[in-house]
Design goal:
The chain is an alpha+beta fold. The chain has helices at 6-16, 23-32, 79-85, 119-130, 178-188, 194-199, 240-253, 273-276, 281-289, 354-371, 390-401, 452-470, and strands at 34-37, 64-67, 101-104, 139-146, 152-159, 162-168, 173-175, 191-192, 206-207, 220-228, 263-269, 297-302, 317-324, 332-334, 345-347, 377-382, 436-438. A hairpin with a 2-residue loop joins strand 5 and strand 6 (162-168).
Length: 474
């Protein structure tokens, strides 16, 4: 889990005209959801010490557990030296408003048994058990209802597609369906681009051209994979004895290989000058337009075991994975039906601008520099030492490397006005109607340069406070 950067939050404050999004105001919300447990030295190897800053966790925090795994991948103990040799500085855990540098990162894991401490486990189930909150299980909201004054009054719901009924709202309706389905629900309810809605004979409640547009995501463009002489993350599965031992460790105290993902170490980077020198001027201008602390690429040291293109296993492998965190590409969500039981069309927009393609190629060249310093790496398996030109690298990325990392955002983006393409204001209230908010990653004005979990929790904590204050409950 990571935070956003101070500059990223500053950009949100500028975009929304609301200084409550400055880092110093958002940092308390970053802390609020989480309950931190320091790494357990009893289980982690001495050469896998995790950096963290106590002040990040100086409040009791909320119900979601945050901790470091009880096992570090053998490969990642070589990470600090390799990343430092490539010019990276050490980071203190990626949660203090700065991402540039390398570190182990914390995970939302319960420290006693290393099971996932999710939103459902941390927030939903305990709250539902001890309050009067009513959960309509296996149900689906079909559309939002409005009165003659364009105030949201409730929602139409079905269960398993049948038995339609209405749930009324006394104060507000809050949409939290994610970056794909929040804009879809708004559009089938009559909020969105007029021409697009009328194409499906949907009556327009609020003509908002930005609904479903501005889709931002973090393209995972693959990475540089090497053979290596330490065990990869699945090595324990190759022998019945080690497999049994790993299971026993995990079931006994949540330790061992099963307690840790294959990628527990990474670094964020702003390209050194030698990687931008030959870029086009448009790409240089784009990178220069970003806040000074906004990293260009996340490089993940991954102890995965990837089969070769012929399906055979090369044994132990490790990868420097590349996630592009400063891209100009955008996608969109559009309807395929007036009914939201039909999935919308998703255009992710990855690498659809020349500058993003240049950034992708440069990320591989930078990843190769990092890989050259990983002491346990052997031969480069993919893309392969013969893939050297920009065109060859880009072809590999586009045909074999590019995949999702599920960091989508901004399809109901915040902003100052609908005329500028915004869908909601800085308190997540939908323009053109009353009593309706969108509180999820879709209402972020742009995606985070780090991972979205911590940012999304902070976003929700801040907006929940706004909802409570607006309804006179503070």
């Amino acid at each position: 889990m990571t935070s956003g950067t101070k500059g990223w939050y500053g950009a949100i404050a500028n975009t929304t005209g609301d200084d409550s999004y400055l880092w110093e105001n958002m940092f308390p919300f970053m802390k609020k959801s989480f309950n931190f447990t320091p790494p357990d030295a009893q289980y982690r190897a001495q050469n896998a010490s995790a950096n963290y800053t106590v002040s990040t966790y100086d409040v009791p925090g909320g119900p979601v557990h945050l901790s470091f795994p009880k096992y570090a991948q053998p490969l990642t103990s070589y990470g600090p030296a390799a990343y430092a040799a490539a010019g990276f500085k050490a980071n203190d855990g990626f949660l203090n408003g700065a991402l540039v540098g390398y570190s182990y990162w914390p995970f939302t894991l319960r420290p006693n048994d290393s099971t996932r401490s999710s939103t459902e486990v941390g927030f939903l189930s305990p709250t539902a058990a001890r309050t009067t909150m009513r959960v309509y299980q296996s149900s689906m909201v079909r559309n939002i209802l409005f009165d003659s004054n364009k105030r949201a009054t409730g929602v139409n719901v079905t269960i398993a597609g049948i038995k339609p009924f209405t749930i009324s709202a006394r104060k507000e309706v809050i949409v939290s369906n994610g970056f794909v389905h929040s804009p879809q629900l708004l559009m089938v309810s009559g909020i969105g681009p007029r021409a697009h809605l009328e194409k499906f004979n949907i009556s327009v409640i609020s003509d908002l051209p930005g609904v479903g547009q501005n889709l931002r995501d973090t393209p995972n463009v693959g990475g540089i994979t090497h053979s290596m002489n330490v065990p990869s993350s699945n090595a324990f599965t190759r022998d019945p004895a080690t497999f049994h031992a790993a299971n026993e460790m995990y079931l006994t105290n949540g330790s061992g290989p099963l307690s840790s993902p294959s990628s527990d170490f990474a670094g964020w980077d702003i390209f050194p000058a030698k990687y931008t020198a030959n870029m086009s001027q448009v790409t240089k201008d784009f990178l220069a337009s970003l806040p000074s602390d906004w990293p260009n690429v996340e490089y993940v040291l991954n102890a995965n075991a990837r089969p070769l293109s012929d399906g055979s296993s090369p044994g132990n492998t490790g990868t420097i994975g590349c996630l592009l965190t400063s891209t100009s590409s955008t996608g969109n969500i559009t309807l395929r039906s007036a009914s939201n039981d039909v999935a919308p069309a998703l255009n992710v927009g990855w690498l659809n601008t020349p500058e993003d393609r240049e950034i992708a190629v440069a990320s591989y060249r930078r990843a190769r520099e990092i890989a050259s310093h990983v002491a346990v790496f052997g031969a480069e398996l993919t893309p392969g030492a013969n893939v050297t030109s920009d065109a060859q690298i880009l072809e590999y990325i586009q045909t074999k490397g590019l995949t999702s990392i599920h960091h989508g955002a901004s399809t109901c983006a915040m902003g100052k006005s609908a005329k500028a393409g915004a869908v909601v204001d800085s308190k997540a209230r939908v323009f053109g109607v009353k009593g309706l908010r969108v509180i999820d990653t879709s209402s972020l004005p742009f995606s985070a340069p780090g991972h979205t979990q911590g940012v999304t929790y902070a976003h929700a904590e801040k907006l929940a406070m706004d909802v409570v204050a607006a309804n006179g409950e503070m």
